[in-house]
Amino acid sequence: MTDARTPMPRGLFGDDVLPLYERTATQLLDDLRAAAARPGDRLPSERALVERYAVSRVTLRAALAQLESRGIVRPSSSRGWFVAELGLLPEAPAASASAGPQVQGFADYAQANGLTTAGKVLSAAVRPATVYEAEQLRIAPGADLFDLHRLRFLDGLLVVLEHNRLPLAACPALAETDFNTASLYATLRAADPPQLPRIADYSVEARHPTPREIELFEIEETMPMLVATQLTSNQESRPIELTVQVYRGDRYRFRASITNQA
């Protein structure tokens, strides 16, 4: 989802509100500096790093992908990961009040706010992209598209019905991942090459629920639904995700900061 709230000053909350992959990236960078690592040094194996930081391989790869995007480490297809440059970004810059909305996955948002998540996959399949989907995602009509329908829960409460569509070529692992438990954005970050959600076109509208939504949400037909449509692009400004999210009107609020740049 897109969190459009004004960013809080750095340091207001502890590091434990950050997504696990970001905390892992910070720990790994601290360890490299403590070991006086130099450009060209090879990192320990992924298995060794998973054991050291007590995280999953998906989380570790997302952490490595973040450090790669900052120019700190680089991968070799057959030899593992290597130090690129430790002095490029010693600290992440403090967020300014004009930083604008940030692209977050559902799991990232929940973790940052101390909430537990759960999911229920309604359908997951690879199918040909329609002409509309191909235009939005800048792929060829008929190209393989990963199509995912899920129910998403926060602290045991059903919040959103989500429909995700992604080009399979961007992350072939999508077709083999169990999204009852896995994070979509963590899977994208762990892709080879990593797919890092960077910017999203986001719109929200209100409407009455469909008969299917009434059944799934166990609501009355008078309950308003908020429908968010999001087209997300990666670090290369290439579209990687077309998503429609249907929220119960009493369990979702969209906030935005509007500024005058003149």
Automatic annotation (TrEMBL):
The lineage is: Bacteria, Bacillati, Actinomycetota, Actinomycetes, Kitasatosporales
PROSITE patterns, alphabetically?
HTH_GNTR
The residue ranges of the HTH gntR-type domain are 18-86
> Is Cytoplasm among this UniProt entry's keywords?
no
Q: From the Swiss-Prot or TrEMBL record, give the protein name.
A: GntR family transcriptional regulator
Which keywords has UniProt assigned to this entry? DNA-binding, Transcription, Transcription regulation
Instruction: List the InterPro entries hit by this protein, alphabetically.
Output: Bact_HTH_transcr_reg, Chorismate_lyase_/UTRA_dom_sf, Tscrpt_reg_HTH_GntR, UTRA, WH-like_DNA-bd_sf, WH_DNA-bd_sf
Domain of life, source organism: Bacteria
Give a yes or no for keyword DNA-binding in this entry: yes
Cited Pfam families: GntR, UTRA
